[in-house]
Amino acid sequence: MRTRILYISILTAATIFTGACKKDITERNETFPALSPANIDLNADTWSPILTASSTFTVATPDAITAPNYIADLNEIKSYQKNLTDDQRAIIKYWSAGSVLRWNEILRELVAKHNLPPYQNDDGSYPFPSAANPLAYPLFPFSNPPYAARAYAYVSAAQYDALVQAWKFKKQFNRAAPYKNDVNVQALVPKSDLPSYPSEDAVVAGVTSKMMELLFPGDLDYIRQKVAEEKLYRIMAGANTRSDIDAGENLGRQVADVFLARARGDKAGAAIGTQADWTNFETVAKAAGNTPWISLETPHRPPMLPLFTKVTPFLFSTTTVAAIRPPAPYKEGSPEYEKDLKEVMAMSQDKSREHERVVAFWADGVGTATPPGHWNTIAAEEFVKHNYSEVRWARNLALLNMAEMDAAIVCWDAKYYYFNPRPTQMIAGIKTLTGIPNFPSYTSGHSNFSGAAATVLGYLVPERANDFMVMAQEAAKSRLWGAIHYRNDCEVGLTTGIKVGEYAVARAKADGAN
């Protein structure tokens, strides 16, 4: 895969120039209670996986609990527990919040680190991140919203399938946790009746690390450090033996191979397009009597991912992308168009604190986890309250993030099919409250992402469905209030995002998890 994606805010270009070369990972390290599932979902082995239903995986038969190797594993745990340092206890506390939760945080951190578009060369051209040389400037990848949505989707979906497969082997071998087999092993995390072989944490670490080797090849040392930390945590906490860990990590890596094969063939590597593609979009727009979108940066920057619409969706076929494409935006000069344009100008002059607050909250621009990452944060903070099992955490995030990726595909399809200019291109004097993304206006990406996310989260947590949709509506309005989108962009984008979310809900209703 080679994804080379470009966008930059005119208003922040000077700032980005000074900081675009490198951005460190900023760990959130939020304090969460130790995961103690209200339901261990022992029947998750019957849930429908996403890609691995027909796959065959192997896990070695574990040693009996009276075998010398198992006894040696128990002694390793007791050796650690005898001399735990403060740092080791901090690691236990951090990871005990849940493997899927922590890896989702780490993924958001990596997206934010790489969400820095490269500055132009001296000759006015733009350098491209390269998977073949990820450590050269500009660092690979540039995690713009479509790329980020794809990364969240692949990692979450692979984690879910890996855990479904792990649950099958857990039930098959039914080996209890070390603290149940030896009274001298302390349980430094909440006890569970879930079989310990293979380790669910190691399964998640194995599948995630291998996916991230593809998605974030410049961060392998950091990723491997977190994997080693998580595996050691389970041993120190008395929750898994070394053999539980090894079996789980190996299984996770087997599942990752299935998803890596899909990712390498999903057409994301060609999403940047060519100059001929960009010229064709302009030609088609002009032939239809419309003003084509142009980059408002100086010099003009190539449009972001014009062929992302060709990427293979998770929730529906590629033919569905065109089938749910929204109708054309208002025609330039029409009464509806003029009304929307005047409203954008009025919004650009509205400096109310409420508008500024909402625009800032939902900006999700350079250096952030992007709009899909914002919705992952909202989801994670909600899921913590429900004490889900690891496999249900993974299933829920997979549904959310497959919808976010497919919403990106559908949104980018509309953007480049209509190639509609932004309000700031059409009328002088509009002063935006946020940066202007480097791609066409119709429909709003924030609105698509938010409609899809709110629909999925509203299904998963029905008592909060209205709250999530109110958030989505506010996110959509923020792009109008920031004066970078027409009202029509936002309203139609929200509607289209909801349609995408409904495909994820349909999958959820049929996957056997309810």
From TrEMBL:
Kindly name one Pfam family recorded for this protein.
Answer: PAP2
Where in this chain does the entry annotate a coiled-coil region?
A: none
User: What parts of the sequence cross the membrane?
Assistant: none
> What is this protein called in UniProt?
Phosphatase PAP2 family protein
Q: Which branch of life, at top level? A: Bacteria
Query: Which positions fall inside the Phosphatidic acid phosphatase type 2/haloperoxidase domain?
Result: 397-505
- Extract the SMART domains matched here: acidPPc
